[in-house]
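Lab notebook, design round three. We kept the backbone fixed and only want residue identities now. Task for the bench partner: fill in a sequence for the structure below.
Input structure tokens:
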């Protein structure tokens, strides 16, 4: 008898843990959110054309959070597209793709008057955008 009770309790805890995990994922990636970039070297007001944080561990950590809060709802969890928007594991890595990436993220993308991707200028800091780029590069 005692054993039976204990295994029921175990199942309950597991189910509760699953709910908790789903709730955390369910939130957070809906509204665009400012990203806390504490610990990164500030970049000033000039837009850079190359990622100053490429390979920077702190930036990669921050970028992963920034991505899941701001980009995952369209580009997919962990940069794996579910078909809604392009798979960002395929974009040009390194300095060659940096300028194109920052331009697109800053300005978003309009097609025939329809906003396909929102502009992140004014929502995310330059630091956050480059941190996301640094994280994306680890997924390629
Ligand atoms: C509302 C949905 C949406 C959100 C949110 C979004 N994107 Fe996009 N993104 C798109 C769509 C749709 C396209 C494809 C536009 C097109 O038709 O060329 C795109 C294209 C891109 C591309 C070009 C990919 C390619 O292969 O051409 C990059 C880079 C990109 N997004 C980065 C980001 C980043 C970084 C974020 C988060 C800061 C983000 N996007 C958030 C919808 C979104």
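Proposed sequence:
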């Amino acid at each position: 008898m005692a054993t039976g009770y204990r295994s029921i309790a175990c199942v309950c805890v597991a189910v509760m843990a699953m709910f908790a995990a789903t709730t955390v994922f369910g939130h957070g990636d809906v509204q665009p959110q400012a990203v806390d970039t504490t610990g990164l070297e500030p970049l000033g007001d000039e837009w850079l054309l190359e990622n100053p944080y490429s390979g920077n561990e702190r930036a990669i950590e921050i970028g992963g959070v920034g991505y899941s809060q701001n980009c995952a709802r369209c580009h997919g969890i962990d940069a794996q597209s579910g078909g809604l928007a392009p798979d960002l594991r395929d974009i040009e890595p390194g300095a060659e793709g940096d300028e194109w990436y920052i331009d697109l993220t800053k300005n978003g993308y309009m097609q025939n008057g329809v906003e396909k991707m929102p502009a992140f200028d004014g929502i995310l800091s330059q630091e956050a955008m480059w941190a996301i780029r640094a994280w994306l590069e680890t997924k390629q």
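Keep this in mind before ordering anything: Confidence is low (pLDDT under 50) at residues 18-29.
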